[in-house]
Amino acid sequence: MKETLLELKNISVHYGGVHALDGVNVSLDEGEIVALMGPNGAGKSTVLKAIFGLAPINSGRVLWHQQSINPVAHEVVRLGVSFVPQGRRVFTRLTVEENLEVGGFIIKNKPELNRRIREVMQIFTVLERKRKYKSGTLSGGEQQMLALARGLMTDPKVLLLDEPSLGLAPKIVKEVFQKIKEINERHKTAIMVVEHNIKSLLEIVDRAYILDKGKVITYGEPQALLKTDILEKVFLGKFE
Amino acid sequence: MDLIMQFIINSLIAGATYTLVTLGFNLVYGATKFVNMFHGVLAAVGGYTVFFFTQTIGIDLWVSIIVGIIGAGLVGFLADRFIFSTLRIKKASNLVMFIASLGAFIVLQAVLAMVFTSQFQSIVHSVDSPRVYEIGSAAITHIQLLIIITALFSSFGLVLLLRFTMFGKAVKAISDDEEVAKIIGIDTNKIIGYVFFIGSAIAGIAGILIGFDTGIQPTMGLAILLEGATASIIGGIGNLYGGIAGSFLLGFVENFGIWKIPSEWKGAITFSVLIIFLIFRPQGIFKK
Ligand SMILES: Nc1ncnc2c1ncn2[C@@H]1O[C@H](COP(=O)(O)OP(=O)(O)OP(=O)(O)O)[C@@H](O)[C@H]1O
Ligand SMILES: [Mg+2]
User: Fold this and answer.
1) Is residue A133 a part of any domain in this protein?
2) What is the pLDDT of residues B111-142, one digit of tens each?
3) Which of A95, B10, B129, B224 has its CA 20 to 30 A from that of A180?
4) What DSSP designation does A195 have?
């Protein structure tokens, strides 16, 4: 039996009258890749934000190793959880290398920090060549790689990815998913990845949750989900 | 010819003074994105702290200066802890932050006036006139030279701090994207607190030097702030290099301006330059 690393129990997030999440239960076990899928505004990003204390939790609990935590954004990373938010959001005023350095902000040992930079640059070789470039000058795909690499600086046990494929060409999307799988296999990193409706993502995940209007509609293994027409229904807005 | 030399020297002194104000102003703006009016009164805090410790208590001048610098830094830091960070957590708009900082400025200025009267005073009442260096027939006092040197060192120091330390990179990261800065483990509130301390301490240095050069008055902060803010906007607000460039540009335009125009129009020159920039190059010299 694998240990559950992260769990959201009955989480509700309300923005004024908007119920971004309504009693959501989601969990992530050791070493697995889990997808959160659903249409725009389903609440996918809010799930990840809630884990980092960046969304106002009205009720419910966040559990880390079965222990209830009160997440504070700058402290969650110290537990071993990394978050790569939606829209890349690299630090454009900093160079590629400096982005990685601040990505390892919590590493206080300088040689260790440099070792991590070398390691993640080996995974993302394109960054090696552009290490001295201001990250604002990178292409969209390169910036996504940098955002991923920055998230890996702390050698996390859990990686939260919000729409890593956003705005990327199909070929690059495949490459990004490949990297995600690679990270998971090599380092046993548990990954929770948010996407809209990309069937190819289901090829690399162990389980998937389908969200709509702030609720988990269904979840299960990808093969089981693919056999039903639930995905089509949700994304065409035909699900009631 | 000698007149030109004197104008150049005066321009450099003015540019250096404004630089000392813009450094902290831009540093705080970069990290928080709000126009901090409170910054001006910190110059007065620096000046009056030195005045109080040397004149009223009678402590050694150098010790008083250090207390003055740290005092200004602390007042800025505490203003952030009690006012600005509280507002930030409540997600107050930049306009609200601006008004709050203006309010805090006025309150503290009034307190200074109540305690020290609103009279113009000099920090040191030394009988001998200040040391003067002559360059041809142009002159610069010891203090004025010190203003230029201090501006130079402060600029260098701050640029090095931001470029080469993890603290500096964290400040830039916060300036780029505060939420992501938090996600990677930066306690942004703490770093912004340090930013306020450093920026305010430099404003304190400016106030102390101005105090030695011309004297102090509770209302001195407003004039200093307006010049500094104008220089920052001209240079490109939030950009340290821009602030320095804007400071010297403003210093030169003002001082060469009053060559032909009576000096009481200096303020008009300052704001004409500001308006010209706002119309034709609102992003400033150094585009961000
Ligand atoms: N800061 C906020 N203030 C108010 N409402 C918000 C805020 N953030 C999110 N919401 C609302 O919460 C709901 C869920 O948003 P969320 O960003 O989690 O959706 P999502 O599934 O990630 O969508 P997308 O695929 O477009 O990224 C939406 O209705 C959104 O408008
Ligand atoms: Mg989203």
Assistant:
1) no
2) 999 999 999 988 876 645 678 888 888 899 99
3) A95
4) E
